[in-house]
Amino acid sequence: MFETRDINDLIRLANAGGGWEMEAGLKSTNDLVRLANAAGGKGRLVLSGMAMRPNDDLIRIANAGKGSVFFKP
Q: Which of 20, 41, 47, 66 is deepest in the core (most CB within 10 A)?
């Protein structure tokens, strides 16, 4: 459900404290960093489909999320 939503709508939802699980493999790293930053300390994001991402991308996303982002393969 959340995979097809516009990234700006997801960022607004995360800023409001919302959390969810989504297939994130097709989202750009920059969009996921923005989303993680919005969720940082407020909500919980579970991002699946991340196994093929470079480690540096995962670190960028995790740093932006400040403990709010969880990865699934």
A: 47
Say if strands 20-23 and 69-71 run parallel, antiparallel, or are unpaired: unpaired
Number of domains within the chain = 1
Which three-class secondary structure state does DSSP give residue 72? coil
* Cβ proximity of 26 and 39 under 8 Å: no
Q: Can you give the residue range of the structural domain that contains 64?
A: 2-71
Query: Token pair for residue 72?
Result: 């699934």
**Tokens representing residue 11 in the block:** 């960022």
The tokens for 2 are: 């959340």
Which residue type is seen at 31? D
Q: What is the pLDDT along the chain (73 residues), one digit of tens a residue?
A: 889 999 999 999 999 999 999 999 999 999 999 999 999 989 899 999 999 999 999 999 999 999 999 999 8
